[in-house]
């Protein structure tokens, strides 16, 4: 079992599953393609290894890919003792590698958000440092901070989400919550977002049952979320994606909570393919549908979800079993459409749970995510 409570993901995490094991100069990523049957960590030595690990789904989940990308480059430059260039050379080296890492997967904004923030750190370091080594040092420290911050932010999401859900609970019994894809420890630096809310509800004795979808075609739900739920001893049931509507019709779901890869300024949310149909089913059955995501998943440059780039993945994920990793199951010659994500319109979302509180709608169909974010910055 992939247990690690001693690496630098924020110290006291207890025995939670860890996809990212990092210490200065060394990065190991849990190969999520092999879970739940095998626990194998891959050594990531540089940005190229990081790019391949993200593209090939060794590591996945919006926050985890951003942090893994940043740390892969941190490991690369940690071995640059003999770098002979100027501070500007160091800065352009880092910026070029960050652009390269961002090209690995397009939909999750966390990756480009991390790259933008790291470039700011690099620029500030160039303005004040005289040696290339100091630029690399500043980069490593900033990348390492992202790892720590993500765990803290997930715990805050869990706490805000659990409090909010309990407050809006209609029945006196515990809540039954349906989730999609994997948004837990494996998709983040630790703890998780939507799954973090489920964990917090469970810890507070307020969870009746978690339902997780298989999440075809890559099966993040049956392979990863089910693995985490069993590991955490949370009462949980796996369902086929196509069973969600029937489950809701039977009155067995009190709320749906999913993660996000990119939230537009109006609250439209890109997340794992199938999220949109869950939101439609939830609306039909009068069940609240929530998004849980850190503010690093928010993209204020997009006014709506219309312009979110949706990654299309290999046909093999559908043609072969185990999300493309197993034997052929589909008829040879069939053409395939395999979008990895879809966009759920804001009007189907009841609230967006962040590490700074829950963004609620004020009477309209859309959220004012920008006002929420600016308020936090003290700018309005
Ligand atoms: O293709 P994946 O596995 O990277 O997709 C992951 C999701 O869609 C998650 O719901 C999202 O990234 C949030 S993870 C906290």
UniProtKB/TrEMBL annotation:
UniProt site (Transition state stabilizer): 181
Key words, A-Z: Amino-acid biosynthesis, Cytoplasm, Isomerase, Methionine biosynthesis, Nucleus
GO cellular component: cytoplasm; nucleus
Location in or out of the cell: Cytoplasm; Nucleus
Source organism, top-level taxon: Eukaryota
UniProt keyword Cytoplasm present: yes
Annotated GO biological process: L-methionine salvage from methylthioadenosine
Positions annotated as active site in the UniProt record: 261
Pfam families associated with the record: IF-2B (PF01008)
Protein EC: 5.3.1.23
Reaction equations catalysed: 5-(methylsulfanyl)-alpha-D-ribose 1-phosphate = 5-(methylsulfanyl)-D-ribulose 1-phosphate
GO MF, one annotated term: S-methyl-5-thioribose-1-phosphate isomerase activity
Pathway in which this enzyme or protein is active: Amino-acid biosynthesis; L-methionine biosynthesis via salvage pathway; L-methionine from S-methyl-5-thio-alpha-D-ribose 1-phosphate: step 1/6
UniProt xrefs under InterPro entries: IF-2B-related, IF-M1Pi, IF_2B-like_C, Initiation_fac_2B_a/b/d, M1Pi_N, NagB/RpiA_transferase-like
Family according to the record: Belongs to the eIF-2B alpha/beta/delta subunits family. MtnA subfamily.
Entries under HAMAP family matching the protein: Salvage_MtnA
Function: Catalyzes the interconversion of methylthioribose-1-phosphate (MTR-1-P) into methylthioribulose-1-phosphate (MTRu-1-P).
Family annotation (PANTHER family): METHYLTHIORIBOSE-1-PHOSPHATE ISOMERASE (PTHR43475:SF1)
Protein name: Methylthioribose-1-phosphate isomerase
Organism of derivation: Rhodamnia argentea
């Amino acid at each position: 079992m992939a247990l690690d409570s001693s690496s630098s993901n924020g110290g006291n995490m207890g025995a939670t599953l860890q996809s990212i094991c990092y210490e200065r100069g060394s990065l190991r990523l849990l190969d999520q393609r092999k879970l739940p049957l095998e626990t194998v960590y891959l050594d990531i030595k540089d940005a190229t290894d990081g790019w391949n690990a993200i593209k090939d789904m060794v590591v996945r989940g919006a926050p985890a890919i951003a942090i893994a990308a940043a740390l892969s480059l941190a490991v690369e430059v940690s071995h640059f003792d003999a770098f002979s260039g100027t501070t500007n050379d160091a800065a352009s080296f880092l910026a070029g590698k960050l652009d390269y890492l961002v090209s690995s997967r397009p939909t999750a904004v966390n990756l480009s958000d991390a790259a933008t923030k790291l470039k700011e750190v690099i620029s500030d370091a160039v303005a004040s440092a005289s040696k290339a080594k100091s630029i690399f040092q500043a980069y490593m420290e900033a990348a390492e901070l992202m790892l720590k911050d993500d765990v803290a932010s997930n715990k805050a999401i869990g706490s805000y989400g659990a409090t909010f859900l309990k407050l809006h609970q209609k029945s006196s019994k515990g809540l039954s919550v349906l989730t999609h894809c994997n948004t837990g420890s494996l998709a983040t630096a630790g703890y998780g977002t939507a799954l973090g809310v489920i964990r917090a509800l469970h810890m507070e004795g307020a969870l009746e049952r978690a339902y997780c979808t298989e999440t075809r075609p890559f099966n993040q739900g049956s392979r990863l979320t089910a693995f985490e739920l069993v590991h955490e001893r949370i009462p949980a049931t796996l369902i086929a994606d196509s069973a969600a509507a029937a489950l809701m019709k039977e009155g067995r779901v009190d709320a749906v909570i999913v993660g996000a890869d990119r939230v537009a300024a109006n609250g439209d949310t890109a997340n794992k393919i199938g999220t949109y149909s869950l939101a439609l089913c939830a609306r039909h059955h009068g069940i609240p549908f929530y998004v849980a995501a850190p503010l690093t998943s928010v993209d204020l440059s997009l006014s709506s979800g219309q312009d979110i780039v949706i990654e299309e993945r290999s046909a093999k994920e559908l043609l072969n079993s185990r999300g493309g990793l197993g034997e052929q199951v589909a008829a040879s010659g069939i053409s395939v459409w395999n979008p990895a994500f879809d966009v759920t319109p804001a009007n189907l979302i009841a609230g967006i749970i962040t590490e700074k509180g829950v963004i609620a709608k004020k009477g309209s169909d859309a959220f004012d995510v920008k006002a929420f974010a600016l308020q936090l910055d003290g700018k309005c």
